[in-house]
Amino acid sequence: MINKADKSITDVLSQIKDGATIMIGGFGTAGQPAELIDGLINLGVKDLVIINNNAGNGDHGLAKLLKTGAVRKIICSFPRQSDSWVFDELYHAGKIELELVPQGNLACRIQAAGMGLGAVYTPTGFGTLLAEGKETRHIDGKDYVLEYPLKADFALIKASKGDRWGNLVYRKSARNFGPIMAMAADVTIAQVSETVDLGELDPEHVITPGIFVQHVVQIQPASTEPASDESASTATTATA
Amino acid sequence: MINKADKSITDVLSQIKDGATIMIGGFGTAGQPAELIDGLINLGVKDLVIINNNAGNGDHGLAKLLKTGAVRKIICSFPRQSDSWVFDELYHAGKIELELVPQGNLACRIQAAGMGLGAVYTPTGFGTLLAEGKETRHIDGKDYVLEYPLKADFALIKASKGDRWGNLVYRKSARNFGPIMAMAADVTIAQVSETVDLGELDPEHVITPGIFVQHVVQIQPASTEPASDESASTATTATA
Amino acid sequence: MSHTSYTVLTRDQIAERAAQDIPDGAYVNLGIGLPTKIAQYLPDDKDVFLHSENGLLAFGPPPAKGEEDPELINAGKEYVTMLDGGSFFHHGDSFAMMRGGHIDICVLGAFQVAANGDLANWSTGATDAIPAVGGAMDLAVGAKKVFVMTNHTTKTGDPKIVSELTYPVTGKNCVDRIYTDLCVIDVTDKGLAVTEMVDGMSFADLQALTGATLIDATK
Amino acid sequence: MSHTSYTVLTRDQIAERAAQDIPDGAYVNLGIGLPTKIAQYLPDDKDVFLHSENGLLAFGPPPAKGEEDPELINAGKEYVTMLDGGSFFHHGDSFAMMRGGHIDICVLGAFQVAANGDLANWSTGATDAIPAVGGAMDLAVGAKKVFVMTNHTTKTGDPKIVSELTYPVTGKNCVDRIYTDLCVIDVTDKGLAVTEMVDGMSFADLQALTGATLIDATK
Question: Looking at this predicted complex, what is its ipTM?
Answer without folding.
Answer: 0.95
